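cron nightly-structures :: item 1 of 1
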Amino acid sequence: MFKKILIANRGEIALRILRTCKELGIPTVAVYSEVDRDSLHVVFADEAVCIGPAPSNQSYLKIPSILSAAQITGADAIHPGYGFLAENAEFSEICADSNIKFIGPSPDSIRKMGDKAFAKETMKKVGVPVVSGSAGVVNDVDEAKKIAAEIGYPVMLKASAGGGGKGMRIVLEESEIEKAFQTAGNEAGAAFSNSALYMEKYVENPRHIEIQVLCDQHGNFYHYGERDCSIQRRHQKLIEESPSPFITNAVRTKMGEAALLGVRSVNYEGAGTIEFLVDKHQNFYFIEMNTRIQVEHPVTEMVRNLDLIKNQILIAAGREIEDKPLDSRGHAIEFRINAEDPDHNFRPSPGQIEYLHFPGGFGVRIDSHVYTDYVVPPNYDSLIAKMIIWGTDRKHAIARARRAFEEFQVEGIKTTIPFHKKVLENEKFINGDFDTSFIDKHININ
């Protein structure tokens, strides 16, 4: 087992990883930017190292600073969490060259499956359905226009590296291509230090459903069912649940088998997620793989009774997967609580939290790094908490979520709690009748 793990991230995921490390008896090192000095992961880690000022490109994305922190503290492994450097093949490679274990897939797997264009071709070769689109990276606007004309509008330009809705633009007609190409490329470059884009046919009003996988060094390739992530705004997931209220058991089985075909083809190691679009006829199409832990991983943990972070660490240490797949039990829904004002187009709402009360009770899990008097900085993602609800079935989970939101109080900043309350009262959501266009069609946002 590792002697010491450095957590190369911040916020709730840093705290989540830290807790698992403590349960495994592994000392931890927190890294933080100057603005995160009072963050809980800094408080509870065994050691903490400041790696730079607030801008992420001068701190959490600065590889030399993170490696220096690992070396001066004697950390022999780094867990990247999600975002920042989690899907950076160069970082994974540099860690290996520095005799520090990167807790995640190999650099080769990240390059193959983290690169969306390459991953798409890989899945296509093993017989997994894919959305039609470019064979690889689109080099310029003229090439983008040519491909779009071949596959037909609408199309979507997507960042070849990274995720989270960054570097994505829907293009309805040729006159929009040039502007979309420039803005998506600039956004991707700023978010992932890689401005490369690829193009695919835009499937209108689909469900967004993903399969969780775990793979170790001993030939074990498992999937742990699906998460339905269709409640989105501008390609950013806001609510995720498992199992999906939409797909049949037969489709569920086929999607799991397709996910395993893909990860076996590249001898993948660690935790990952295979993402699909599913049309109204339940035809599914591979769109990308996230070669990291997901924000919504607790949904799977709650219905499968496993610890994905623990298994990530064990796999990286050369152990076999400890938690084998079990049948899904009950229903889980995750609500992302963001420091945003849903009444004003989800405008960011950084600032000091003057009062905070988390809900509790059986089946209510809160993953968060904030507390009363905590100052939410304007420099990073606006996620301040995740409320994960478990119920014996979907109806029970929804009822429990409503009760929990009655207890959830945050004062001093605006949050997405009122938005979630609206969703929970919407008949379409209650009946499981929704797709990725749900918010635009059914939730009134100023």
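cron nightly-structures :: done
Residues 22 and 28 are 8 Å apart (CA to CA).
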